[in-house]
Amino acid sequence: MKKFVCSLTILFFAFQFSYSQTTLKGTVIDTSEKKNLSNSVVSILRKTDSVLIAFTRSDGQGKFQITAVKPGTYLLMVTHPTYADFMDDLQLLDSVATDIGQIMLIQKSQLLQEVIIKQQLGAIRFRKDTIEYVADSFKVQANANVEELLKKLPGLTVNKKGEITAQGEKVEKVLVDGEEFFGDDPTIATQNIRADAVDKVQVLDKKSDQAEFTGIDDGKKTKTINLKLKEDKKNGYFGKVSVAGGLKDNYSNEAMINLFKGKRKIAAFGTMSNTGKTGLNWSDQQNYGGNNMNTEMDEGSGMIFFYSGDDFDGGNFNGEGVPKSWAAGGHFSNKWNSDKNNFNGSIRYNKVNVKTGGSTLTQFILPDTLYYNNERRNSFSQKIRNRANGSYELQIDSFSSVKITMNGGMSMSQGINNFFSEALTSTGQPVNRSNRTTTTDGNNNDLNSSLLYKKRFRKKGRTISLNLSQKYTFNDSEGMLNAINEFYTKNSLFLTDTIDQKKVVENRMFSGSSKISYTEPLSKSIFLELNYLLGTNNSASLRRTFEENGSGKYEALIDSLSNEFDYHILTNNGGFNLRVNKKKYNFSVGGNVSGSRFRQTDVIKDTSLTYNYVNLFPRGSFNYTFTQQRRISINYDGNTRQPSIEQIQPVRENSDPLNIRLGNPDLRQEFNHTLRVFFYDYKVFNERNIWVSFYGTKTDNAISSKDFIDTLGRKVYQAINKDGNYNLSLYADYGFKIKKLNLRLSGGINARVSRYNNIVNGIDNVNDNKNIGFRLGASYSKEKKIDISLNSSPTYSETKSSIRKDVVTKYWQFEHNIDLTWQLPKKIEFKTDCEFIQRQRTAVFADNNNVIKWNASIGKKILKNETGLVKFGIYDILNQNIGFSRDITNNYISERRYNTLMRYWLLTFTWNFAKNGKAPTSMFGD
Amino acid sequence: MKKTLLLFGFLATTIFSHAQFLVRGKIEFERKINVHKQFDGDAEWLNELKKHIPQYNITYFDFLFTGDKSLYKPGKENPDNGRDNWGEGPAKENVVYADYSKNTFTSFKKVFEQNFLVEDSLKKIQWKITSDTRKIAGFECRKATAIIMDSVYVFAFYTDEIIVSGGPESFNGLPGMILGVAIPRISTTWFATKVELTEVAETELKKPVKGKKTDLATLQTTLQTSFKEWGKYMQRNIWFIII
Fold it and tell me: Could you report the per-residue pLDDT of B66-118, keeping only the tens digit for each?
């Protein structure tokens, strides 16, 4: 032992400065027994701040010696368990060995101090063994700190050193909102807490951590003060106003504000734009439009976030045409009673006018011939939508909660569509021509509500949840159909069909369902989940067609094109899932069986049809975690799909007389197998990633189609069952960073093979589709200076139909992107991006489809704290943007073109304002 | 009262006066990370997340010591820690071997996919001694505070009843064993839950050998350059790796 102490002494002085050292020696003894105390700790502390400079332990004779300490003024501290600490000033002189002789330690004894409790009614509460002071009841000066508040509290004293005594006992711990230490660190905001930030001061006898942990009271208690902070200290607002305009008549304006007082939030927004923005963008939606986030926790797959969005969401218009839109909304939310009650409510309004125009060129591949179809269209539509959402969540206790949600909407839509189409033979002879105009004027209303009850049990892993939901929709519309269809044979007009009708449609639907789920832990790592659902759906569909009755009014009912049906569906669905969770892997197997009864009643003919069917949903999954950054998961899903009633027994209608559907009463269900494999590996140090995913589906008895195209170019189609359809796709991505160059390189491959079987004009046809795409990317970034990224992706497509092996469609498409963000001096930012799209022409589509879409903007941050932004931007500088899509399905190949936004410029001014807060950043940044 | 005091005095002498200063034994540390505090901000999704994950991540470590050597390594499993270990991150299962007579330590740290073997001299920490005391695992401990890595506050509780000047992770340099450490900035505490007077053979203290050899200064530079774009979250992790 002596040896050991010796070595310790040497060790701790090895790093002291070697010049001008002094030595201190002495002996530690017990006063009462007059015996030498071994193993006492003798420490030398710096006098100014009590920093430990050196220490040693006394030897078997109670003797100690410390060398290698710089001369100066110190504190000498000698401690020994069960003895009171010895503290004294110590002066060490240069090159003189100081012998301080005997240090006498006294055995510990403590005097109990007198207990004084003063009471002040109202402001002080006693609960169990806690005394609670309501901070606001005790007057302190403005800007006073907590210490001053404590001095005012009866029963508490604070001495000069800042030590607190409560009811005569020394307070050992000060907690802030129940947390120890986290109030001690001066770098943490809770330090220097102002008195007016404190809600309650709680004085309690805290049980030892062990007792709290085990629940067994070991009788050890420490006086503790807990400062409960006020929740409503945060009052303020934040918001944004942005005005943008460009000649001739482009605009995009928005304004939004969020006022908050503690947990209560009130927000409002308004937007108007004719440059593609139809509402708030994603992150603004979270801050001003109301939170629509849902979360679920699942032991197996972790946390799931999902956003129950609706068609109000999405800031940018990606569709066809040029939209003009107006949107407005308001949101209110509040949480109270320690967040146990949570209410959210919002209302929204949206109006969008869209003008679209375009053309479609389609090639029909038939066994003996080819057809071409040219279609031109233009339309105008207006949609006005109103929606209200509300939810209330109550945390009943720490084990159970209830959530009630309700939402309803009313919308009106109007539209007018003009179509002109002509079908041509492969030699360009006309087959048919159609000129069609439709108008609609409709209303859609819906009301939905649900109640979700969740309960956890004391047994870990045992849970139950009950979900009741209801949905009601009511839609009606009125419109006109005007069409002239001309059919040709051998280049001469053979038949003209004129339609002039009024259509009135009414649909009502009411559905309700209740679902109960239960999870039982079979062992620490095995869980059994059971679920059962009962659902009903009742709907009524009314369709009436009128023609002119001779007096200019559309009142003569056409029986053959009018109908009224009632539908009733009853579904019972039950299933189980067995889940095994281990540290490295987890897997689950299970499935659901659903039985449905479907009844269709023809109200006019007074007949009804009933179908009963059973759907199976087997599933299984396996996940393996090699390391935190390397995982693989494999999932299998199987499901049956029933034919739709339209496929079995279609309702006759004539809105598109060139496409006629036939029913198939013998149609059977199809069964889909889906396999998903996902692997990822990430290295944090060089940011190297590997992602590989595979997705495959195979369909047995697939519901496919049997098409017959007659010599008049009319398509008659019917659903049939076919085997052998599949779809396989593989995606892989690899990327890494060259740290020295700040350069990130990445590459990927995307391949897809699919097969679709159908029957064309009586002949079995196999359509094979192959796609392979590559991607190469590079990005360079220098923090707060420049960001550049380049991407290039060539894709090759090939399509073959067995009925015409000689007609193969194959083409390349190249897409190149360049993005640049450059931070210039004086808070100026320059941004530009350019997209080059090259589409190889094919035999059918010989038009030039190459596009260079180039955008650029320059912005400058202005005002104090960079709250303002002035920006000038040009969209599609070269005025080359076209709406384009190429679609290859079965034996049809089509190319669509449509009008879309082209070159415009905008000058934008944005002002962000805030008081006591700012917009929280969203989960994925802005 | 006199009687109890007397009795206490008697017990104390029997226990402590007869050289019951521990030089070998085994300490179990409980590391408690406040997971909720790791998430900054008041965004709604964060509040949702917090609702679903436990506030604390608790892990156990064993600290074996014989005279001038010690080994700190992951201990018993906590069955409450699910698969989704939210407290997990780099350097959360360190193994630290210290040799106090040579003033050196060897530490195995797994930082994402990279295993490091840090070999360096024991850290020199400027401890400020206070008069506060607290009982941890039955031992009266004195509080000391320090600032490490320029700005990170550390609160430590040590007992002079254990002679080895070690502690959890690579904390050391106090006149006794550190039985409690709290670092508010990383919302983490280490507290001894039990101290066993078992005979520990020197052979049980196995020095870690796996990993890429480095020293503290080099490791810190490596981390700082590798993770400079990661921001606040990584800064917290760097502190965690370096302690």
Answer: 988 999 999 988 877 765 555 567 888 899 999 999 999 999 998 888 899 99
CA distance A36 to A83: 13
Amino acid at A344: N
Question: Which one-letter amino acid corresponds to residue B227?
Answer: F
Counting beta carbons within 10 angstroms of the beta carbon of residue B215, is it exposed (0 to 12), middle (13 to 18) or buried (19 or more)? exposed
Nearest residue in chain B measured CA to CA from A15? B124
Q: Is the dihedral of CA A245, A246, A248, A253 positive or negative?
A: negative
Q: Within 10 Å of residue A287's Cβ, how many Cβ atoms?
A: 25
**Beta partners for residue A823, in sequence order:** A829
- Single-letter code of the amino acid located at A379: S
- CA end-to-end span of chain B: 46
Q: Is A43 on the interface with B (CB under 8 A)?
A: yes
B155 vs A43, A181, A222: nearest CB: A181
Tell me the pTM.
0.75
User: Strand pairing partners for A754?
Assistant: A727, A769
DSSP line for B49-73: HHHHS-SEEEEEEEEEEETTEEEEE
Q: How far apart are CA A873 and CA A884, in angstroms?
A: 24
CB atoms A51 and B126 under 8 Å: yes
Q: How many residues does chain A have?
A: 926
- Give A911 or A98, the one with higher predicted confidence: A911
Q: Is the pLDDT of residue A122 over 50?
A: no
Angle of helix B232-242 relative to helix B216-226, nearest 10 degrees, comes to: 170
Facing residue for A920 by CB, picked from B43, B130, B131: B43
Strands A702-709 and A743-760, how do they pair?
parallel
Q: Give A298's contacts in chain B (Cβ within 8 Å).
A: none
Contact A287, A920 (CB under 8 A): yes
Phi, psi dihedrals of residue B221, rounded to the nearest 5°: -65, -45
How far the first Cα of chain A sits from its last, in Å, is: 64
Q: Is A924 on the interface with B (CB under 8 A)?
A: no
